[in-house]
Design brief:
Layout (H helix, E strand, L loop, with lengths): L1 H14 L6 H15 L4 H17 L3 H17 L3 H18 L2 H17 L3 H17 L3 H17 L3 H17 L3 H17 L3 H17 L3 H17 L3 H18 L2 H17 L3 H18 L2 H17 L3 H47 L5 H56 L5 H38 L8 E3 L1 H11 L1 H4 L3 E6 L6 E3 L1 H18 L4 E9 L3 E8 L27 H13 L3 E6 L5 E8 L4
Parallel strand pairs: 2-4
Antiparallel strand pairs: 1-3, 4-5, 5-7, 6-7
Helix pairs in contact: 1-2, 2-3, 2-4, 3-4, 4-5, 4-6, 5-6, 6-7, 6-8, 7-8, 7-17, 8-9, 8-10, 9-10, 10-11, 10-12, 11-12, 12-13, 12-14, 13-14, 14-15, 14-16, 15-16, 16-17, 17-18, 18-19, 19-20, 20-22, 22-23
Length: about 625
């Protein structure tokens, strides 16, 4: 790399400020900034800014897009996330305007990395997979390698370890083929982190040591820094405290040199925990306070909540209940915010896997449509239902985990605080000074707030489990009286992590009294239509659910504000084996099965749509099913 950098610098010097060759100089500056970005991010930022200035002067749109991309990456490495996102957005806009697909991929990848650092993993994965598709379409191997690495890192953060290892290994294969040692070393660090979280500390230590060797040999300070900090953490957990301190202090020195607040926060956090374990609470408090300042400066939410957790545990150990309560509360607020993002990603991943399974079943049905088709369809419908139920159950279990942890932690702190309060009331109530009485009242008020919080959290868990039980009702083969609106509300709650804040659900329920139907099978139909509606909407949008009835029939309409379905596809939408051109509509097997379920109910299902006008599915069901 060093020889290539020298060649680029020599070419730039020879160009001077020749106006006719300004685009060439801009391209060379961008290439130079990209080459040294990981090694010398501040110098790379200076080259990228010069390129950006010249590209505006030229004007040269493509050069400006790549300049903005490089600036975004440099700010990302330096943990200035707001500035990084600003330039990544500009790079994407310019690349889209010029039709530069390689530039579009690079800008999307930068955005993905930024949203990942901000803790918005669902958005980060969406952007990363769009970038991956573009790098493969354009055969841009370095970009593909880095995007695969970044996807592996995102899956690591949401604890999808098998997928994380898979994407890291794909990235490593590419970096080996194209001779990118920096990429290979970063992949080794990522794999080391996976094995660390899986509890294999020795394997993790080997991988990180190998990564450190490569990073040091090629003078990549950001990579060296990360490896030093991680090796310090590993030696701490292995009980090798002296070695841990050496690595962590080296990490702090290097982080200060390259001015990386996020790495400073991580290293001080680990040193604070080491001091706490060594029974040095005052030093631990100083380290952790520094860690919190650097973490908040970096804007990286995951490291912020981990520092709050460590401070809460330290103050609880020291008997400082007020300070412990404050940090526990901040920890839980931020922890829950991040885990809600993780839950959304997991639900999205479950949906993706289900789509693949359904596509495979759809192909099998199509192949055997003239060979015992009815029997095969029945088996596939049953297995599809069970797969969906099992996967949704896993997602709900994940959602339940965080509130339960919150209850356990809050209950523990509340019990200790109440015990202290009761003791003070018994011994000191009569002689309590006004100032101490005020402090005690404040403590009791805080504990009461936690009690209310625990109660609300428990109610949330109870509601989730009740909806899950209703959805998983085992009487699929039985005709029973159903409450239509209850079933729709339960399903909406189960898929709300897919809708998030970007999709508004409007319920226009009419008067529908309970009626007889195969309730579990109708759940399958409503789930398919809701998931299709969510999938059809890119960005923000709206789904409207209308219900009504007359003496003979019940009517249900589900309308999405998506791009609509082309007229030539509408006649085939309920056919088994049909594949729409629009890749957003995956549940074609589900639509075919939905058609059969509604016909079993002696009802009708139809679709109305036009490009740019959304899609409406209408279901008419008899009130008196025979």
């Amino acid at each position: 790399m060093q020889s290539h950098v020298l060649v680029l610098e020599e070419k730039i010097k020879k160009l001077h400020d020749d106006p006719e060759r300004l685009p060439e100089k801009i391209d060379l500056l961008n290439e130079l900034a990209w080459e040294i970005g990981l090694v010398k991010p501040r110098r790379a930022l200076a080259f990228a800014k010069e390129s950006y200035r010249l590209s505006k002067k030229a004007p040269y749109s493509r050069g400006r897009a790549y300049s903005a991309r490089n600036i975004a990456y440099c700010y990302l490495i330096l943990s200035r996330l707001n500035r990084a996102l600003q330039f990544a957005n500009e790079a994407l806009e310019l690349s889209l305007a010029s039709g530069d697909r390689e530039g579009e991929a690079a800008a999307l990848d930068a955005q993905a990395m930024i949203f990942g650092r901000l803790g918005n993993y669902q958005r980060a994965l969406e952007l990363a997979f769009r970038a991956l598709q573009l790098t493969r379409e354009t055969s841009f191997r370095p970009g593909e390698g880095w995007t695969l690495h970044n996807i592996g890192a995102l899956y690591l953060e949401i604890e999808e370890y098998d997928q994380s290892i898979d994407y890291f290994q794909q990235a490593r294969e590419i970096f080996t083929v194209i001779s990118r040692p920096a990429g290979e070393a970063r992949v080794l660090s990522g794999l080391g982190e996976v094995y660390y979280r899986m509890g294999d500390l020795k394997k993790s230590l080997q991988l990180h040591q190998k990564a450190l060797e490569i990073m040091s040999a090629h003078d990549i300070p950001t990579g060296v820094n990360h490896s030093l900090m991680t090796l310090g953490k590993l030696h701490h957990e292995l009980g090798q405290w002296a070695e841990a301190r050496v690595y962590l202090e080296q990490s702090i020195a290097l982080s200060q040199k390259i001015e990386n607040p996020e790495m400073l926060a991580a290293a001080y956090l680990e040193l604070g925990r080491l001091d706490q374990a060594a029974d040095q609470p005052q030093q631990a408090s100083e380290r952790l306070t520094r860690a919190l300042a650097y973490a908040e400066q970096s804007q990286a939410i995951p490291i912020v909540y981990r520092v709050h957790q460590a401070l809460a545990e330290l103050y609880e150990q020291l008997g400082k209940a007020d300070q412990a309560l404050f940090h526990y509360k901040r920890y839980h607020q931020l922890h829950q915010q991040v885990h809600e993002q993780e839950n959304a990603v997991k639900m999205h991943n479950l949906q993706t896997r289900l789509d693949v399974e359904q596509a495979e079943k759809e192909a099998e049905i199509h192949r055997l449509r003239y060979v015992e088709l009815a029997e095969m369809q029945a088996r596939l419908i049953q297995s599809e239902k069970m797969a969906m139920l099992g996967k949704l159950s896993a997602g709900i279990a994940r959602e339940v985990k965080t509130p339960l942890e919150k209850i356990i932690s809050n209950s523990r702190v509340s019990r200790e605080g109440l015990a202290r309060a009761e003791e003070q009331f018994r011994e000191l109530l009569a002689a309590l000074p006004a100032r101490k009485a005020s402090s005690l009242r404040k403590l009791l008020d805080t504990l009461a707030e936690y009690a209310r919080d625990n109660r609300e959290t428990a109610q949330k868990i109870s509601g989730i489990m009740q909806r899950l039980q209703r959805f998983a009702h085992p009487d699929e083969a039985e005709r029973r009286k159903i409450d239509l609106h209850q079933q729709l509300d339960d399903l909406l709650e189960l898929v709300r992590y897919l809708t998030g804040e970007r999709i508004r659900v409007v319920k226009q329920y009419g008067k529908v009294t309970p009626f007889y139907a195969f309730g579990q099978e109708l759940n399958r139909v409503f789930m398919t239509l809701l998931l299709n509606a969510v999938d059809a909407i890119e960005g923000e949008g709206e789904i409207t659910i209308r219900t009504g009835s007359d003496p003979q029939q019940v009517h249900i309409q589900i309308t999405d504000a998506g791009p609509g379905i082309p007229p030539e596809e509408l006649p085939h939408i309920f056919e088994t084996g049909f594949h729409p051109k629009d890749a957003r509509r995956h549940l074609t097997a589900g639509l075919a099965n939905s058609y059969n379920i509604i016909r079993k109910h002696q009802g009708e299902i139809r679709v109305e749509s036009a490009p740019g006008q959304g899609t409406t599915f209408t279901i008419d069901l008899p009130r008196n099913l025979k």
